[in-house]
């Protein structure tokens, strides 16, 4: 699984932080990590510390917050995905189809009015 940031993907100043190039087994690992670290332990998850994720040009840290804000960054290198517990539960549900079978589809992992989306795509396409 790889992680990168693509700035201004469509000419409308919209950006994407992308988790991509993964298979069903890695999707299962990622979902389990979200459930254990964020939902159960209520701790931050720093993706640069996850052995099966290769950061390309950024890092993403996921953590609980009082409201669903999505992805925030001050420097376009370190990104923070801040969601409520309910927001992360929805994210886990959106990841689940990738855990059930190999897929060539993709999924945005939250629906928030935010200029930076979080894309989950086994083939890197959307």
Descriptive notes:
- With 126 residues, this protein is α/β, with parallel strands linked by helices.
- It has one domain: Gyrase A, domain 2.
- The protein has helices at residues 24-40, 85-100, and strands at residues 2-6, 15-20, 45-46, 54-55, 59-64, 70-73, 78-83, 107-108, 116-121.
- A five-stranded mixed β-sheet has the order 4-1-2-9-8, with no helix packed on it. Strands 3-5-7-6 form a four-stranded mixed β-sheet.
- Strand 8 (107-108) and strand 9 (116-121) form a beta hairpin.
- Helix 1 runs antiparallel to helix 2 (85-100).
- It is globular, with a radius of gyration of 13 Å.
- The model has no long low-confidence stretch (mean pLDDT 95).
**Topology as a string of helices (H) and strands (E):** EEHEEEEEHEE
Topology, number of strands:
9
Identify the quaternary structure here. single chain
Largest sheet: 5 strands, mixed
Overall, the morphology is: globular
At CATH level 2, the architecture is 2-Layer Sandwich
**End-to-end C-alpha gap:** 16 Å
Number of helices: 2
What percent strand?
A: 25-35%
């Amino acid at each position: 699984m790889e992680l990168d940031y693509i700035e201004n993907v469509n000419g409308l100043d919209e950006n994407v932080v992308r988790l991509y190039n993964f298979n069903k087994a890695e999707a299962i690992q990622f979902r389990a990590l979200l459930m254990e670290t964020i939902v159960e332990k209520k701790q931050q998850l720093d993706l640069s510390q996850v052995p099966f994720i290769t950061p390309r040009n950024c890092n993403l840290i996921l953590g609980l917050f009082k409201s669903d804000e999505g992805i925030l960054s001050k420097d376009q290198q370190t990104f923070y995905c801040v969601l409520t517990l309910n927001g992360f539960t929805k994210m886990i549900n959106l990841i689940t189809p990738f855990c059930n079978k190999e897929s060539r589809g993709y999924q945005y992992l939250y629906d928030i009015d935010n200029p930076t989306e979080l894309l989950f795509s086994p083939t890197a396409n959307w």
